[in-house]
Write a structure and sequence with these properties.
Structural class: mainly beta
Strand order of the largest sheet: 1-30-29-28
Largest sheet: 4 strands, antiparallel
Oligomer: single chain
């Protein structure tokens, strides 16, 4: 009888050891798959361009924008734009007069001209004259959507064919913008500097274009200054639109529907952009970081290109293409364009 019981007990232990299909095993398997995908992601250098070859003076880059199809990249400085074709690496320079590159559109670029505070659409055809899109735009207009239907100035929302509308956010200064085109909404970071206090208001809001409703993400700001951190350097939506990300001295994710904080990572990121439902890429001026969007953890890091890291902090500009497969980075006098290779 004892031998039968012992054999039965031993068989039970053996069967238990051979059952890997429990809930824990499924979670671990997904974690392993995620880790492998993050480990397999890589940046493949497509072009390296010296800005003087674009007639762009070093240290004077003001903006970096992709064309909607990702075929061209515009590097803006205070007198014009340098344009690079991704397929061939060929470049050209357009002298537009003193102003600011605000974004890219189908067949051209949005350019703010401070002389008359007008926003122009400059066609890719060098023979075409610029078209005035928004006459009398407020000084310092900071962003125009790809389709040109929406623009943001300091505290104002511009829409084609309508009077500018006031946006009640933070200190009024538009810092960074992400556009969820599919759902018709904007993610806006307000980085208004409070003179005399040496601090920044830091607000993060979602604005619904259809209704005009604006709601904040995270806890409301107390009266007066909010000395939390330096301005937010980058914002983005998750691909499903349910999560918003804000990068600065820390990286945070928010539930868009409720506005509540989902996760936080005390890792400074000057740039952060979502690549696919799992992956995001960021950098802190020193190294690229591959992020797991779901857990807000760094899977791995890799250095910025040789020569991109300086002892003295300098202005850097980074832009992910509309198809999220190309990454452009400007540092000092150099432009790097990468193709993002993802493991499956």
């Amino acid at each position: 009888m004892m031998r039968v019981l012992g054999a039965t007990f031993g068989l039970s232990v053996l069967l238990a050891a051979q059952q890997p299909a429990g809930a824990g095993a499924v979670v671990l398997s997904q974690q392993e798959l995620d880790a492998r995908r993050i480990a397999a992601a890589e940046l493949e250098l497509v072009h390296s361009v010296r800005l003087p070859s674009l007639s762009v003076p070093e240290y004077q880059v003001c903006a970096l924008h992709w064309a909607p199809d990702g075929a061209r990249l515009a590097v803006g400085w205070r007198e014009g734009v340098g344009i690079v074709e991704v397929a061939t690496g060929k470049s050209e320079n357009r002298s537009l007069g003193r102003g600011l590159l605000l974004g890219a559109g189908t067949g051209g670029w949005w350019w703010w001209r401070p002389t008359d505070s007008a926003v122009l659409f400059v066609a890719s055809d060098p023979e075409a004259a610029p078209t005035v899109v928004w006459p009398g735009a407020p000084r310092g207009l900071g962003w125009v959507s790809i389709d040109g239907a929406v623009g943001l100035a300091h505290g104002y929302l511009h829409r084609a064919g309508a009077e500018p509308g006031r946006l009640r956010i933070g200190g009024g200064g538009i810092g960074e913008v992400a556009h969820d085109v599919e759902r018709g909404r904007l993610l806006i970071a307000s980085n208004g500097h409070e003179l005399g206090f040496g601090s920044f208001h830091r607000e993060l809001c979602v604005h619904e274009l259809a209704t005009g409703a604006t709601r904040g993400l995270g806890p409301p700001s107390p009266p007066g200054q909010r000395p939390l951190e330096r301005p937010l350097g980058s914002v983005d939506f998750a691909l499903d639109g349910r999560t918003a990300f804000a990068a600065g001295a820390t990286l945070r994710s928010f539930d868009v529907a409720s506005g509540t904080l989902r996760a936080e990572a005390a890792i400074p990121q000057q740039f952060f952009a979502v690549v696919d439902p799992l992956l995001a890429i960021g950098h802190d001026h020193k190294q690229f970081s591959w992020w797991n969007c779901r857990t807000l953890t760094v899977g791995r890091v890799e250095p910025l290109p040789a020569g991109a890291v300086a002892d003295i902090p300098v202005r850097r500009f980074t832009a992910l293409s509309p198809h999220r497969d190309l990454l452009a980075l400007v540092v000092d006098r150099d432009l790097w364009i990468y193709r993002i290779r993802l493991g499956r």
